[in-house]
Amino acid sequence: MKSGPSLAILIPVFNDAEGLRKSLDSLLVAPCPAPLMTLVVDDGSEPALSLDHGPYLSLGLRVLRLPANEGIEAALNRGLKEAMQHGIRYLARLDAGDTITPDRLTRQMALLDENPDLGIVGSDARYVDASGKLLFVFRSATDDRTIRSRMHVNCCLVHPSVMIRMAVLEQVGPYSVDYPAAEDYELFFRILAVAKAQCIAAPLVTTVVSGSGISSRRRHAQLLSRLRIQCRNFCWTRIQAYLGVAITLSLLVVPAALVNALKRHCKVSHY
Questions:
Q1: Which of 137, 220, 246, 255 suits 110 as a labelling partner, its CA being 20 to 30 A distant?
Q2: What digits encode the pLDDT tens for the residues 216-243?
Q3: pLDDT digits (tens, 9 = 90+) for 37-83
Q4: Strands, E, within the chain: which ranges?
């Protein structure tokens, strides 16, 4: 009897068919050690997303469409609901336009298979412009203790780099809609309350920095959400908690262009 998929890759998309195809093409050359389902959630694109399934049959492609643009939180939760109905063991994230290295899925699944106490695995990430030029590399904290500490400063798990154990997601619940543009940061804190985290010290995902991306379009809302999350999870005994709040407050008045210029100049970012 053929087993069902063990891994689902969740990709929300809004008006970016070209970016989606780029992401799916990268999955084609990334061997998966288990049956795979690729969940694409069309968040009310206009016109509706049109995709030839033929080239992507090996990815177990399923396209779900929301009748209207409801935002990334709703799109992600629609995909989560679908994954839970199919007994998926692990859920990997990717955003339309982002690409992965051929070894990402195997390496992350191996860590989760070998470490039952792990709930989430991330990695470093390459950030590039629309032409593919490298802007900077995000260097993640690798061990659980450092991740927990650094999370109080800012989200130190790159959302499109993570793979999450579905049993943990079922335990902590879906993405919250109460923290606009920072739904991942809030979810990761809930995951860390019940499971451990680890990151692979290699850039297993490449993400495109765009002026139309959520972090650019909704920066002010994202910072306010980030501040609320930091206050909700404030730890009085961690100096990183005070540092995180101070940095977030300062970023509310510091231009985004200056922050991005510093990252490009340094070529490396840890937050």
A1: 137
A2: 568 999 999 999 999 999 999 999 999 9
A3: 999 999 999 999 988 889 999 999 999 999 999 999 999 999 999 99
A4: 7-13, 36-42, 61-65, 90-93, 99-100, 118-128, 134-138, 163-165, 196-208, 268-269
Domain spans in the chain, listed from the N-terminal domain onward: 7-269
Distance CA 116, CA 111 (A): 9
Strand 118-128 and strand 196-208: the pairing is parallel
Could you tell me where the beta strands, DSSP code E, fall in 117-240? Answer: 118-128, 134-138, 163-165, 196-208
Which residues, 6 or more positions from 142, have their beta carbon under 8 angstroms from its beta carbon?
Answer: 198, 199, 200, 201
The C-alpha atoms of residue 190 and residue 173 are separated, in whole angstroms, by 9
The rounded distance, in Å, linking the Cα atoms of 126 and 206 is 5
Q: What is the topology classification, in CATH, of domain 7-269?
A: Spore Coat Polysaccharide Biosynthesis Protein SpsA; Chain A (3.90.550)
Longest Cα–Cα distance in the chain: 59
